[in-house]
Amino acid sequence: MSSLTKIPAGVQYFFDDEVRLRRSVEARAMRVFAGWSYDEIILPMFDYHDLFARGMGAEKAEATYRFVDRDGALLALRPELTSLVARTVATRFLKRERPIRLCYSGEVFRYDDPAEHAAREFHQLGVEHIGERDIVADIEVLLVAAEVLTSLGLTEFRIALSHVNFFSGVADFLELDAAGRAQMRQLIDRRNSLALAEFLQTVAPQIEQTRRDDFCRLTQIAGKEDALERAREILLNEKSLAAVEHLAQIYSTLAALNLGDNFDIDLGDTGAQEYYTGLVFKVFVPGLGVEVGSGGRYDNLIANFGESEPAVGFSFALDGLVAAIATQRQTEQADGEATQPISVNGDLAAAFNRARQFRQQQKQVKISAR
Quick check: 128 and 85 in contact, CB under 8 A? Predict the structure, then answer.
């Protein structure tokens, strides 16, 4: 029998202030989602493994916790929530008016990182906007994400925008096969400019070196209108240029809303999930070296479970949001939600009357018998 003090790798326990902060962040995010008319959906903790293979791809679905039930069916703990939402919409919401706006909050489980101390249990908060192909839905989910961060006091956030067709247009233009596409995607995502330059020299010697070098630089550095302008000068294919113009329209709208400082164009992101088809984005906050959220458009995913429907969404990592708030020292007390201590001192009615008054103001109380 293992030691009672030992816990499995990758799981976490939370208590005291950690729990209060996590619950507070979750509640605020869900209030923002509701404010934009997203209805909460509660999804099963596990489902058939095949569902996740259809949704996130067979390779990524291998990084799930799997088990066989008494009927012999192969099941998996949910590694993400978008596939479950997609299947639900395709099979149970057929007659519901579009667009459908859904939000969720829950745990997911993965073991794709072999590091001993890597987390394998995550809490995600997110939204899915289904049934609208227009750029309006893209901008809406970006504004929802921005409002969640602002509501948490994370005003210095940065959301990096990219588009899947920027990459796929270049791959089509170069006539790359599946292996070539995978290699170039990896080089861009890892921002390995030297290896990318060598790769392009091999597969596209007919393109002048200055243009190849400019493309490598374009995938290395985030920017704003300047990045869009550089892309227009360098790219030669219509598919990638259309993607750049889509990003330009989104960015100009965000800039008109005085959010330009919080958004960047980052063409070095090719979209991690196989199901992304258009806009993709990642969310960063100061003090953390990794993104705290990501999302994008996935117009082909729902067709894996039924009729094809356009969709766009995102999810935040609750751990990332909580860590960011802790970094900025934004505690519950900073939000004016400090506990109200109440001493009874022999007068029960008076003490509990004060407690009820504070509770009517949604303030936390702590009763002391002394």
Answer: yes
Question: 327 φ, ψ to 5°?
Answer: -60, -40
Q: To which residue do tokens 């790219």 refer?
A: 235
- Summarised one tens digit per residue, pLDDT across range 239-276 is 999 999 999 999 999 999 999 999 999 998 887 677 89
| Region of residue 132 (left: phi > 0; alpha: psi -120 to 50; beta: else) | beta
The Cα angle at residue 273 between residues 318 and 166, in degrees rounded to 5: 120
Taking the alpha carbons at both ends of the chain, their separation in whole angstroms is 45
Residue 57 in 3-state DSSP? coil
User: Which residue is associated with the tokens 């109200």?
Assistant: 340
pLDDT of 183-233, one tens digit each? 998 899 888 888 999 999 999 898 888 888 888 988 887 899 999 999 999
Q: What letters, b where the CB count within 10 A reaches 16 and e where it falls short, cover 4-43? A: eeeeeebeeeeeeeeebbbebbbebbbebbeebebeebeb
Alpha carbon distances (Å) from 301 to 274, 275, 295, 311, 334: 9, 6, 14, 8, 42
